[in-house]
Every structure is written in C-alpha cells, then in structure tokens.
Amino acid sequence: MKLLVQINGQAQELEILAPEPNCRYRFGQGDERAADIDIPEAGAYSILTNGRVYEAHVEEMPAGLVVVVDGHRFEVDVQDPRRWRSKAGGRGGEGVASVMAPMPGKVVRVLVAAGDPVEAGQGLIVVEAMKMQNEMKAPRAGRVLKISVQAGSAVAAGDVLATIE
Amino acid sequence: MFRKVLIANRGEIAVRVIRALREMGIGSVAVYSDADRAGLHVRLADEAERLGPAPSGESYLRIDRILDAAQKHGAEAIHPGYGFLSENAEFAAACEDAGITFIGPSAESIYRMGSKTEARRTAIAAGVPVTPGIDDAITAAEARQFAHEHDYPILLKAVAGGGGKGMRRVDGDSDLDSALRDASSEAERSFGNPEVYVEKLIERPRHIEIQLIGDRYGNMIHLGERECSIQRRHQKVMEECPSPLVAGDPEMRRAMGEAAIRAARCAGYYNAGTVEFLVDQQRRFYFLEMNTRLQVEHPVTELVTGVDLVKLQLQVAAGERLPYDQEAIGWRGASIECRIYAEDPANGFLPSPGKLTRLSRPLGPGIRLDGAVYTGSVVPIDYDPLLAKLAVWGPTREEAVDRMIRALREYDVGGIRTNIAFFRGILEDEDFREGRLHTGFIEEFFGRYKPAAPSREVTEAAALAAALHTLSRAPAAQQANGSRRSAWLQTGRNELLR
Asked: Which of A15, B265, B335, B383 could form a disulfide with B300 if both were Cys (CB 3.0 to 4.6 A apart)?
C-alpha cells in the first residue's frame, strides 16, 4: 500500500508492502527494507531495523499525528491515495460546498460540467497522485457551480477543484 | 511526634510530604479543590477534605476552610508546602491561635523575612552583605539620584514581591520613569501593593542559596548551597548541589553558610529556610532574600547530604532537637534537578495544560522523581504547571549531567507539551558543562541554541510508525460507502485489528 507521509512539512512516499510484525517497506523509489515491529503499549512502536532499535511514540492529536522518536518531535500527516475523501468546505445541504485536493497531484479527467446536477457521492474529478487515480466525489447533492481545473492541471494540497451549490 | 498532619497544598509537594508522613507512621490529611479531586495527593492520603472551587482564592488560599478541615480531621499540625499560604504570616498565626502547629517558622519570623525591605534590614543588622540599594519605597527622583550615585544599571523591585513580578531593569535616565510606572502597576496587580524599591544591578550574577534548618532551642545548621542560576523570567528551572563555583571552595561555603545563619538567627528563625544570595564575578556574595519555607529544589540537597528535610521539619516542629550539629553534615557527589513543566519551549514557554495520554518515567540508578501526575491525569489550568521534579545524583557533576541526559531520554510524556527536550539542549551545552553559569544563562543560551536535527534514520522511523499506526486505525471498510459506523463498532474493529 502506497502512502503519502507529510513529516514536519516534508512529503515523502512510503509504501508498506507488509505491516507489523514483519514489516516490509520502501521509501520513494528506494530499496525494499525490512523491520521487526513490536507494539508493547498502545501507541508505542519498537522498530528493529538493520540491527538498530528505534522507539516511536505515536499520539493522535486533533491536528494529526504527533510522533516522538529519541526526543525528536514530528508532526505527521499520513494520506492513503486510494481512499481519498473529498474535503468538503461546507456541510449539510445549505450554501456552497468546495471540493478540495487533499494532496498534490495531477487532474486526469473531469467527469461533470458546470450546471450539472449531481448526487451525493457522485464522482466529479479524477486526480492522480503517486501513480494512483482517485475520484473526488460530491460531498452532497446539488448543482455544480464551478469546475476550477481541467484535465492535465497540476494541483496542490488544499486547492479547490470544484464548488457545488 | 504528631499523630496526624494536614497538608495545605497540592501537586508534587503534597505528595512529597505525604510520603515522609507515611514513612514516619503519621496519618495524612489532604485538602483539594474541585480541580484536584483525582489528584495524586488525594489518592495517596489517608484522609481528605474538599476546600472549594478550582481558583486558589476559593480553595488553597482559604485559611478558614483549611483550619476547619484540620479541626474536623483532628490534625495536630499543618504542613504548608511551598507557594500558596506557606509564607503567609497571618496563616501561621491563625494556626497557632487554633492550637495547630504550623510546620515552619514563627509568624514573627515570616513577617521579618517576608517583606524584602524588612529582610534587607534584618540582613544588614546581622552584618550580612547586601547589594547597594534603598530599602524603602522610592519616588522617581530618589531612584534617579541613587542611579547617579551607584551608576546604571539599576533594578526596580516590588516591596511585597517575588518571582520576578514587579521587577524592572533600568539602563539609563530615559527609561526610568516608564520602568517605575510599569513595575509599580505590576506590583499593585500582583501583590496589592504598588511600592517599589531600588537596588544596584549586579551584572551576570549567579544565584546561590544556602539551606538552613533550626530547632526551637536556638540550634541551627546549614546544609550547604544550591546553585539556581538557570532561570527563565526569574523563575528557577534547574538547580544543583553543590554549586560548581563553591564545590572546590570550602571556605566560601563556610562563609556563606555562616552569613545565612547570622541573618536567620537575627529573625529568631527556626524550622527549614533558605537564604538566597547573588554572587558576582569576583565571588562576592550579597544577601538577596530569605524563603521561609521548604524550597521546590530541596531534593538536590537531600541527595548530596543524605538528610531528609521534610522529616527534619516535622521533628523540629514537634519540639524535638536537631539530631546533629554542623560537623555531622557532609557533601557527597553532585545532584541536579530539572523542573518538568507542562509548557512549550518552542512557543515562549506558554503553559500547555491538558490530559496526559502517555507517561514513561525514567528509572534506574541515581534517579529521583517527585511528581504528582499519572497516565490519564489532567494538568489543570488553575495552578503552576509543574508536572514533576526530576533529580539525579552522581559521584561527580559530570556523571550527574550525563545521567540526567540519560534520564530525560527515558522520560516521555504524551498529550501535552513539556520542556524535557529543552533541558537536554542545556545539558549538552558547553558553557553549562563547564559550569559557567549566571542568571541570564537561558536567554543567552536561546541565542545559540539549535535543536539537534533528527537523523534520517530517526525521521524514517517516525514516518514508518505513523504509517503503521494510520493503517491499523483505518480499516478498509471504513469509508466504503461513505456511511459512518458507530463509534462502538469502530472501536471494536480497531481492537480486533491491533
């Protein structure tokens, strides 16, 4: 499974080939590596890799994960491109809702046009990141007010892709 | 000896006193505010009594309620800890009037040493050196004249003050009027007394203090010095015994100890107390103030002298004689204490109250941890955000420093921010390791402090842990059709997947 990990603001790709306890993983295009993982307490990860021991404490904070290793504190955001969710700017049925890109990528296809009626959960735009295609869905039923991107557009995390009213 | 003692305090110091009481077979009565029902001091005590709502003015500062609690529970004595009512002469007098022993000096001694100007007068009368200054409340004109006689910089201080409140440095005539106004209004807000006095400022001084204890029969000894130069905003955060400056100079220790005893005797002092000195670059020491109570940093003295100060306090308060004389006191090895606070060093040391979600404590040789927190405990916003005092002992200062770095590495607190990593930075600093200390150390240290960057391996370990954690918490079915599972079902599923 490929993940995009933002660690203290730096994005890197991390592919988990096998989870704990006999974890195999790969950073970016690097070599496949192995780590013996033990979780002795909730949130405590004892990582044994290449003969070295690392103890990571993971904490779920409102803004994301906080990981402490050897006294160093990391703010980490982990995204799974296969399970992208539309980040809806508005909730409920009233007003205008924005569909934003949760991570950087490239628009592959636009499935609807301005003025189209849409159902909640209907696919609007397909974005590719890390060689995986992800359909951005309508957060609720309504009418497409505006499509802000076109096929081939590069998007950054937080960019508004479409608005629905 | 007493059969039952009430502790008029909270947090780690209340726990510290309860531990001494338990070892001595004395019953303990805790008091608590609504914020502290689950406090460790309540959980550990034999008996407990609610005082009132969280604000200390409605709970830990309520003399009437504390005395009622003592009477209701049949406590014969009250230990005030530090802070709150510990240096309140009115409280000490009220205890004695109610027939309850105040574990500390007399109300008269507290009064004579409690006000800084009164304490200076006492020190002068005892022949103890003080910094040049005017002891009484001053006007702007008097401050200006003083500055012209003794040269800038000068220091304005609140007459009723403490903890750096109402204190201002002045470097020239142009700043004087506004600094006096600021100091005065801050003093008024903090202490209800706007009076300000003036002292010559000693540049780059060390803060070195002498621990005393005396009985009611006029016997008094000193337990040597503590160096408390590592301060931020005039609050100590790190203390050690012995002082790296005094460690190799027994004559200086003897002179400071004798001066401290002279000042305390002049105030008719008994029980534990601390005389604070500023020490200049020429090793001259000047009386600063006296703390008429147990100090936060007392553990470093205990670790090096082997004396249990709280037990001695109880013994002399119960009317016993000091069990030993000055010759019996020796100093072995070195001890350092770090005050672990719920605060964020990266964000101006802003308090970081909240719930502790995770706690791993340092253990092993030479470690002493005085704390009052546990996994799941809440650091309330209402009080000082001190989580614990981590103290270490080592045969030499160098070993104590290395041991403290090791201990801090084992210390992990989740849910709130702490200053743990910041201490590691100080302990690895060359000036600190060489013992080149002064009260402005932290400010200067901040200028050169670069938090060590994590290695690539450490960063990758963090990324890997975060990724695995996320995968274990986000089962594939979660968002399959956009429906939300009930929290109970989700939790059950997460548990199964772990």
From this structure: B335
CB-based contacts of A1, cutoff 8 Å, min separation 6 = A15, A16, A80, A82, B471
CATH number at residue A62: 3.30.700.30
B137-181 pLDDT per residue, tens = 888 899 999 999 888 999 998 888 766 778 899 999 999 999 999
Instruction: Give the nearest chain A residue to B480 (CA atoms).
Output: A83
Which chain B residues have a beta carbon less than 8 Å from that of A45?
A: 464-465, 468-469
CA A37 distance to own-chain centroid: 23
Angstroms from A24 CA to nearest CA on chain B: 10
Q: Classify domain B206-448 by CATH number.
A: 3.30.470.20
Q: Are residues A96 and A134 in the same domain?
A: yes
Helix, strand, coil % in chain B, rounded to nearest 5: 40, 25, 35
**Closest chain B CA to residue A83:** B479
Name the pTM for this structure.
0.79
A54 near B CB under 8 A: yes
Q: Give the DSSP H or E segment for B134.
A: strand B133-134
CB atoms within 10 A of CB B8: 31
The β-bridge relationship of strands B27-33 and B47-52 is parallel
Q: Which residues of B are catalytic?
A: 293
Segment B81-126, tens digit of pLDDT: 999 999 999 999 999 999 999 999 999 999 999 887 789 899 999 9
Q: Model confidence over B302-360: pLDDT tens digits?
A: 999 999 999 999 999 999 999 999 999 999 999 999 999 999 887 778 888 889 988 99
Q: What CATH number was assigned to the domain covering residues B133-200? A: 3.30.1490.20
A123, β-bridge pairs: A137
B57 vs A: CB within 8 A? no
CATH number at residue A149: 2.40.50.100
Residue type, B30: A
Question: Which of the residues A1, A15, A45 would you substitute to probe the B interface, choosing the one with the greatest number of B C-beta atoms within 10 Å?
Answer: A45
